[in-house]
User: Which sequence fits this backbone?
């Protein structure tokens, strides 16, 4: 009736002959990296001062009690009894909101040293039966608990009970939009949101109107569409956060295979929310030469030494492109704040090597490129795309990079695309180099 597959340290029952439905091997990279990210987050959690005020309400997740009786007492406190973990003092609680077979939950329970409790939830009765079998198979009944709820309902219920998760993983089919309100408001201050989007056609400009419906942003067909997808997703999460006086700090955002994944911390500060418009921009693409321009929605200014924020006034982008006089198409709004926190990414890079993950080489390769990415330049170009505009041979990346570096500019790759570059040089400089080569 069931096949068993192994991934990381977990063994998982999958209904026989339904491997394709219940197990996606391509997402192993996503799950490996999530294990590494949660490991680092759990280490930081130990010394995070914001955690303390949540601890009283989170007994179920942070219990260090040693006797069965004490645990039973705690179980009786809430209507939803939870299995207190015993792995470490002050460990984290994780909600795997859309769990399917519970594979992520099992892996977090087995492989992330600082995890105390994982709640594995799925709306499907079949899925929850499999989760329960997998909890027993992996001997995780003291750490992983199953739930069968609509994820939105579950998160709202936990919030009403005054219990906040340290981390919430949203790994839906397609887009995560409908789960975000509940997730953002049931995370503790400084909590970690892990979000996957698999609807890449929508995010990459095939159906911009659907993208606007799902993400409140218009997507764009451009060589940089995968970073654009990341920035649309971050914009959506930030917008949802703003409603609750919260804001995001992205720790790591990446595109791989057929999906994107973002790891963001969520903090509470209505004051900081006022700066949201300064981290948000409209994007303009010239239909003649593919040059991209940005119009930030807000600007930062100083009055008597104080930092203030205001909405920008008037279009900065000319109606016609300065390079070819082409017309622009408009897209966005997108997040134009940082995609990554370099210190955190370095910690993940250092840690992942010791975790024995199947995808260590791919993880370290990608994180090394991410660390090199120029932080404050949104999106990128590809040489293939720009050279096709000029109808010329594609210039070797090394020659192009040397030309920019010799002229005193910064240049880096993007992890999203081969042959891509980010630079702080203006597009006038870039076009000059390409024309003169
Ligand atoms: N995270 C899993 C993994 O890594 O193997 C894969 C999850 S699968 C993409 C999405 C799951 O979400 C399905 O099992 C589906 O039953 C469940 N689901 C869809 N809508 C839901 C909802 N509103 N509440 C709870 N579960 C839901």
Assistant:
């Amino acid at each position: 009736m069931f096949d068993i597959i192994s991934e990381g340290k977990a063994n998982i029952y999958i209904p026989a002959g339904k491997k394709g439905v219940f197990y996606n091997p391509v997402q192993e990279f996503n799950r490996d990296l999530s294990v590494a990210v949660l490991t680092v987050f759990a280490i930081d959690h130990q010394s995070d001062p914001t955690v303390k005020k949540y601890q009283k309400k989170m007994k179920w997740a942070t219990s260090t009690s040693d006797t069965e009786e004490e645990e039973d007492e705690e179980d009786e406190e809430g209507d939803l009894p939870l299995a207190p973990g015993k792995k470490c003092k002050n460990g984290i609680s994780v909600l795997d909101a859309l769990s399917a077979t519970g594979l992520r939950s099992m892996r977090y329970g087995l492989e992330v040293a600082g995890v105390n409790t994982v709640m594995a939830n799925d709306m499907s009765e079949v899925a929850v039966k499999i989760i329960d079998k997998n909890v027993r198979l992996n001997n995780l009944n003291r750490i992983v608990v199953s739930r069968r709820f609509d994820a939105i309902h579950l998160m709202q219920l936990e919030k009403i009970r005054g219990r906040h998760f340290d981390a919430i993983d949203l790994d839906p089919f397609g887009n995560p939009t409908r789960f975000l309100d509940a997730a953002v408001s049931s995370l503790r201050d400084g909590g970690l949101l892990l979000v996957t989007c698999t609807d890449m056609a929508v995010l990459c400009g095939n159906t911009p109107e659907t993208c606007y419906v799902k993400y409140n942003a218009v997507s764009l067909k451009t060589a940089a569409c995968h970073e654009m997808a990341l920035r649309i997703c971050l914009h959506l999460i930030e917008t949802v956060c703003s409603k609750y006086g919260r804001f995001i700090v992205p720790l790591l955002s990446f595109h791989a295979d057929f999906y994107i994944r973002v790891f963001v911390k969520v903090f509470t500060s209505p004051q900081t929310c006022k700066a949201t418009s300064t981290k948000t921009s409209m994007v303009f693409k010239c239909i003649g030469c593919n040059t991209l321009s940005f119009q930030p929605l807000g600007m930062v200014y100083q009055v008597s030494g104080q930092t203030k924020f205001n909405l920008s006034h008037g279009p900065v982008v000319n109606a016609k492109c300065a390079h070819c006089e082409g017309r622009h198409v408009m897209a966005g709004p997108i997040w134009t704040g940082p995609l990554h926190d370099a210190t955190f990414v370095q910690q993940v890079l250092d840690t992942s090597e010791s975790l024995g993950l199947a995808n260590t080489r791919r993880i370290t390769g990608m994180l090394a490129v991410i660390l090199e990415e120029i932080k404050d330049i949104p999106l990128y170009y590809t040489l293939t795309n720009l050279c096709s505009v000029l109808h010329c041979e594609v210039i070797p990346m090394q020659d192009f990079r040397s030309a920019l570096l010799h002229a005193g500019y910064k240049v880096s790759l993007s992890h999203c695309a081969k042959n891509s570059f980010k630079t702080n040089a203006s597009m006038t400089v870039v076009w000059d180099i390409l024309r003169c080569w």
